[in-house]
Design a protein that fits this description.
The complex is a heterodimer.
Chain A (H helix, E strand, L loop, with lengths): L6 E11 L5 H10 L12 E11 L2 E10 L9 H5 L4 E7 L3 H5 L1 H11 L10 E6 L12 H11 L3 E4 L8 H17 L29
Parallel strand pairs in A: 1-3, 1-4, 4-5, 5-6
Antiparallel strand pairs in A: 2-3
Chain B lengths: L1 H18 L1 H6 L9 H15 L1 H7 L1 H9 L7 H8 L8 H9 L5 H8 L7 H4 L4 H16 L9 H11 L1 H4 L3 H20 L8 H18 L1 H9 L5 H9 L8 H14 L2 H20 L2 H11 L9 H9 L4 H5 L1
Helix pairs in contact in B: 8-10, 10-11, 10-13, 11-13, 14-15, 14-16, 17-18, 18-20
The chains are: A alpha/beta, B mainly alpha.
Chain lengths: 212, 327
């Protein structure tokens, strides 16, 4: 099947965030294209695989690591984080406490994992359960951009695993940043939120990550 | 003593269910008559339960052997309670006091209630009796064991205990709250008193240190393979210890392991773990990290669907040095 000149990239992605924010649901939606309100709590770690044909020359294999929400209280995250190339940090827009925990998850991630070039791994913030009709974030888009900039996220998305909103987009954004950071190991790209106008030839822009 | 009166009431409940047993059993077996084998086993377990103190002193080994073969479904509730020998229990008033208090873990617990056995009839409805009782017990536990508070995974264990007594819980209010109180006590007696260090995420790190030592001894080749693939114990064995296999295998298999856990303790978890790896060694050696993760997630859970006897027999072939593990 695979063409001779096709390159295959294998990336390990982490999906982390507080308990019950919808990490498993996001992965199931992304990988199996379905949703159930009845997923069991994840114990330890779960694993799923998604293959993307990125472009004519590139196939991307994503290993998605679904890490139990309570893991932050143990020291186990370190072994799960090893060799990851990117991360989704998820919170539940209906529960402010899960957003407050986002910085803790980001710190945990950055303290335990850096790319070979010494930079933090690209991380995308997911504001999940946006189908629940709470519009706080829509009105606070600028604040969210600011938050991402301050905390080193390469982008953020409002997502809904239930309604299948923005999950593919978020993944493309993360993968794009991973590919960019790989192909330019010394000078990894700046997050768009810092220089959204930056669109020069060499640097992959990620304006698609952000809603205007 | 409350416990005694209660175990009597539990016994009489079991007794009355036994007497009207044919109608209850007919739902699970095609004929309304008990098979001889089943009847023998009921008579035997009935005697064990009625003469528990005596039987336990004089025939400890035989009881262990019988438990390994599986406790008949209708006797589980009472036998588990006898096995964990709750000598005393917090008086019912204390339990209701606990429920009036606020636990710092309440929100966390609440979040997981609907995600514990979401497919099971007793728990699946929002605000059902099952969900309410599960929440109460987890909350009471978190107030008694403040250090652990709530640990993800434990609700599956309490949920299994509740499934065994759900008939009693459905009966009437005094029986319901008494039973609820007893369940919380079983749980505390087994986990808080017996295995405090293994029963939380921080404690489980010790387990993940022991388990590889056991593998090194029993499965040296696989141990090297896991090491070379950076395949850490926590990636496949978290559910073994945090839920005593209840989220690893389907309930009929896991419940059999749980029978032995109630009777012999944590050792069975190590034994079953090694047995599972032994049975899968040949395949695992051929797989990389990704393949192994998938094997543990997709193949192993259904390996014993036809019956857990093979697994339990294999786990007792494992040479387990209890003294060494205690160190």
């Amino acid at each position: 099947m695979q063409k001779h000149n096709q390159k295959e990239h294998l990336y390990k992605l982490l999906v982390i965030g507080d308990l019950g924010v919808g990490k498993t649901s996001i992965i199931k939606r992304y990988v199996h294209q379905n949703f159930s309100p009845h997923y069991r709590a994840t114990i330890g770690v779960d694993f799923a695989l998604k293959v993307l044909s990125w472009d004519a020359e590139t196939v991307v294999r994503l290993q998605l690591w679904d890490i139990a929400g309570q893991e932050r209280f143990g020291n186990m995250t370190r072994v799960y984080y090893r060799e990851a190339m990117g991360a989704f940090i998820v919170f539940d827009i209906t529960r402010p406490a899960t957003f407050e925990a986002v910085t803790k998850w980001k710190e945990d991630l950055d303290s335990k994992l850096v790319l070979p070039n010494g930079k933090p791994v690209p991380a995308v913030l997911l504001a999940n359960k946006c189908d629940q009709g709470i519009d706080v974030l829509m009105n606070n888009g600028i604040k969210m951009d600011q938050f991402c900039k301050e905390n080193g996220f390469v982008g953020w998305f409002e997502t809904s695993a239930k309604e299948n909103i923005n999950i593919n987009e978020a993944s493309r954004c993360l993968v794009k940043h991973i590919i960019a950071s790989e192909s330019d190991p010394v000078q990894s790209i700046e997050p768009d939120i810092i220089k959204p106008h930056l669109n020069s030839s060499k640097i992959v822009s990620c304006s698609a990550c952000f809603k205007s | 003593r409350l416990l005694e009166t209660d175990s009597k009431s539990l016994r009489s409940v079991n007794g009355s269910r036994r007497n009207s047993g044919s109608s209850l059993v007919s739902s699970s077996s095609a004929s309304s008559n008990l098979s001889h084998l089943e009847e023998d086993s009921w008579i035997l377990w009935g005697r064990i339960v009625n003469e528990w103190e005596d039987v336990r002193k004089k025939k400890e080994k035989q009881v262990k052997e019988l438990v390994r073969k599986g406790i008949p479904h209708h006797f589980r509730a009472i036998v588990w309670q006898l096995l964990c020998s709750a000598q005393s229990m917090p008086i019912k008033d204390q339990y209701s006091e606990l429920l009036k208090m606020t636990s710092p873990c309440e929100k966390l617990i609440r979040r997981d209630i609907a995600r514990t056995y979401p497919e099971h009839d007793f728990f699946k409805e929002k605000d059902s009796l099952g969900q309410e009782v599960l929440f109460n017990v987890m909350k009471a536990y978190s107030l008694v064991d403040r250090e652990v508070g709530y640990c993800q995974g434990s609700a599956f264990i309490v949920g299994l205990l509740l499934m065994q007594v759900n008939m009693i819980l459905r009966m009437c209010e005094p029986l319901k709250s008494l039973t609820e109180c007893i369940i919380s006590w079983w749980f505390i007696a087994n986990f808080y008193n017996s295995f405090p260090s293994s029963f939380c995420y921080n404690g489980i790190l010790n387990v993940f240190f022991f388990l590889p030592l056991l593998f090194q001894e029993h499965l040296p080749e696989l141990y090297v393979h896991f090491q070379s693939q950076s395949f850490h114990t926590s990636m496949y064995a978290s559910s073994w210890f945090l839920t005593i296999f209840l989220t690893t295998f389907p309930l009929p298999v896991a419940t059999r392991v749980f029978d032995i856990f109630m009777s012999e303790g944590l050792e069975i978890v190590f034994r079953v773990g090694v047995a599972v790896l032994q049975m899968n060694q040949a395949e695992l050696l051929q797989l990389d990290m990704e393949g192994m993760l998938q094997h543990f997630q997709k193949v192993i859970p259904h390996q014993f669907d036809s019956g857990p006897d093979k697994l339990i027999q294999a786990s007792y072939q494992v040479k387990y040095n209890a003294k060494k593990m205690k160190k």
